[in-house]
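Annotated sample (chain length 112).
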Amino acid sequence: MFSRSELMALRRKAVRRGTWFRVLTRIERATIDLTIRCVDTIRSATLTRIIAEIVEKIEYAAAGFLFRAEVGGRRLAERATELALSWGNGEASKWKDDVGFIRYLGAMSLSR
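Output written by the structure step:
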């Protein structure tokens, strides 16, 4: 559950980091603002889900480049490992755990 104080702190951080206007749509910003003004603690499951999606969007945008590269690269490394193993490359099983390889794939996918 989200409280008014948590949402106010999140909004303050997002504005300071520049993600409030860059990442969120007008409707998402209005949803957070109205929730702060009208609700002390969110009890609605639907509103909680919507706010959670917005919070996740803000946190993802605020995360550093390496974090985003690792998140995206991990999926790509797993796919590359499966493909190489299907071709008979036994050494490929180590690829999915190699942080350098994961970051490389992630950085390449982010630069597109």
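Annotation: The helical segments are 4-17, 19-23, 26-38, 45-62, 65-86, 99-110.
Annotation: The mean pLDDT is 91.
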